[in-house]
Amino acid sequence: MITIKNSEQIELMRQAGRLLYEVLQMAAHMVKPGVSTKALNDAVDQMIRDHHAEPSFFHYEGFPASLCTSVNDCVVHGIPSKKEILREGDIISLDCGVKLNGWQSDSALTVGVGEISKEAQALIRRTEECFFEGARRAVAGNRLGDIGHAVQQHAEKAGYGVVRDLSGHGIGREMHEDPAVYNYGIEHYGAPVKAGMTIAIEPMITLGDWHVESDEDGWFFRTLDGSISSHYEHTIAVMENGLPEILTLPGFHWEGEN
Ligand code: MG
Ligand code: MG
């Protein structure tokens, strides 16, 4: 069931989203060669708790950490480790969730470690663009297929793979709510987008083939062909005026909007 949120509820999600933005910015600035993924996790965990919020991922379905750290061919759900030391040229997806006053937010970004290849830079940039292509279609009157279609088109036009096994999702009191928000789709198909919907859109884009496989524990989704992959996610709300607001990107305005 897709739950519609009122403006007070969206305001609470906006507050959670603002904190999550600051947490991810802090973590992104920590990324450099020699840093362990565990150090990133610990800093994120501490900052969230210092703000009287909860790290949503911690113990979620048994996940043992507060931040997903997914390096290179790992697409999502990488578990931080003190043995995993970032090296020059790596790329890392930082994915985190914050629960504040009972309301969730979920966001991810991919950053380079030191100097990265032109190829990796282009993949990261394109993945972010894919998000915005999708998000700008999260407009009342459209359908979810319009979002997925836009993400998929933008990725595939550049020759990239679109991971199918995982998707975005509704979000609110729970981190994962209905509906599933796929990164592929058919225009004018799927559930209608309505004011008060709150969803996380999260393209997972690969340099090579899109097929992925999880490890034995069900975490660490990696590309089957070993190609690097990028992930970018924000929580958005479809506002009263029918337009999407990006709750985890404070201060962002769509071009042409005041
Ligand atoms: Mg996420
Ligand atoms: Mg998510």
Helices, strands, pairings?
Elements: H1 7-30, H2 37-50, E1 54-55, E2 67-71, E3 74-76, E4 91-100, E5 103-112, H3 118-135, H4 144-157, E6 161-162, E7 168-170, E8 177-181, E9 198-201, E10 204-206, E11 212-213, E12 221-223, E13 229-231, E14 234-238, E15 244-246
Antiparallel strand pairs: 1-4, 2-4, 3-12, 4-5, 6-10, 7-8, 7-9, 9-14, 10-13, 11-12, 14-15
Helix pairs in contact: 1-2, 3-4
Bound molecules: magnesium ion (2 copies).
One magnesium ion binds at residues 106, 169, 200, 202, 233.
Description:
It is a single chain. This protein is 27% helix and 24% strand. It is an alpha+beta fold and 258 residues long. The protein has one domain: Alpha-Beta Complex (Creatine Amidinohydrolase). The strands form 4 sheets. Strands 8-7-9-14-15 form a 5-stranded antiparallel sheet. Strands 1, 2, 4 and 5 form a 4-stranded antiparallel sheet that branches. It is globular and about 45 Å long. The site of one magnesium ion has 5 residues, from loops.
Average pLDDT score: 97
Structural class: alpha+beta
Q: In what order do the strands lie side by side in the largest sheet?
A: 8-7-9-14-15
Q: What's the total count of β strands?
A: 15
Low-confidence stretches: none
Order of helices and strands: HHEEEEEHHEEEEEEEEEE
CATH topology: Creatine Amidinohydrolase
Largest sheet: 5 strands, antiparallel
Q: How many alpha or pi helices?
A: 4
Q: Provide the gyration radius in Å.
A: 17 Å
Query: What is the CATH class designation?
Result: Alpha Beta
CA-CA gap between termini: 33 Å
Annotated CATH homologous superfamily? Creatinase/methionine aminopeptidase superfamily
Percent of sequence in beta strands: 15-25%
Distinct ligands:
magnesium ion
CATH architecture tag: Alpha-Beta Complex
Which outline best applies? globular
How many structural domains in the coordinates?
1
Helix content: 25-40%
